[in-house]
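Why do we bother with holo predictions? Because pocket geometry can differ from the apo form. Keep that in mind while you read this record for flavin mononucleotide.
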Amino acid sequence: MKIAIVFDSRSGTTKAAAEEMAKMAVAAGHDATAVAVQSASSTEVAAADAVCIGSWTEGLFFILQHATKATMNFIDGLTLSGTPAAVFCTYKTSPGKMLDKMADALGASGADVSARLRSRGSGAPEGFADWLGSLGQN
Ligand SMILES: Cc1cc2nc3c(=O)[nH]c(=O)nc-3n(C[C@H](O)[C@H](O)[C@H](O)COP(=O)(O)O)c2cc1C
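The structure, written out:
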C-alpha cells in the first residue's frame, strides 16, 4: 500500500516521529514517505491508499490546543473518498481536543479516520502499529 505521512514540525520532534512511522510502514511492507506539510502535494496525498497527518501541539499547554494552521489548511484542501486515515500529534502536556478536531476535518474531506494517535516525544505514537495492521497488505 502507498501510505502518505504528512507532518508539521517546528523544532524537529514531529518530523522525527513521522520518519519513524514511515520506517515502520516500510518495514511492514508498505511504500511510505514522510513529507512536511509545507512541501506536500494534496494531489499526491489524495492518490495514496492511506493517509496519516500530524502536527505538533500549539496552544497554552493546558488549554486551547490546536494543530497548526498549515496542517488544518492542508487537511481542508484535500478531497478524498473513503481513504483509510489517521491523525497524530506530538505534545508536551496535553493535546486537548486537537486530535478530534483534526479527525473531524479530515473526515469532512472524505477520509475514513480510524485512529487518533499521540506521542509525547519523537517516537512513533502508540497505536500506530495497530493502525498499520488494520490496513492489510494490498
Ligand atoms: C508556542 C508553543 C506552544 C505549545 N503549546 C503546547 C500545548 O498547548 N500543549 C502541549 O502539550 N504542548 C505544547 N507545546 C509543545 C509542543 O507541541 C511539543 O514540544 C512538540 O512535540 C513540538 O514538536 P516539533 O518539535 O515538531 O515542533 C507547545 C510548543 C510551543 C513552541
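The mean pLDDT is 97.
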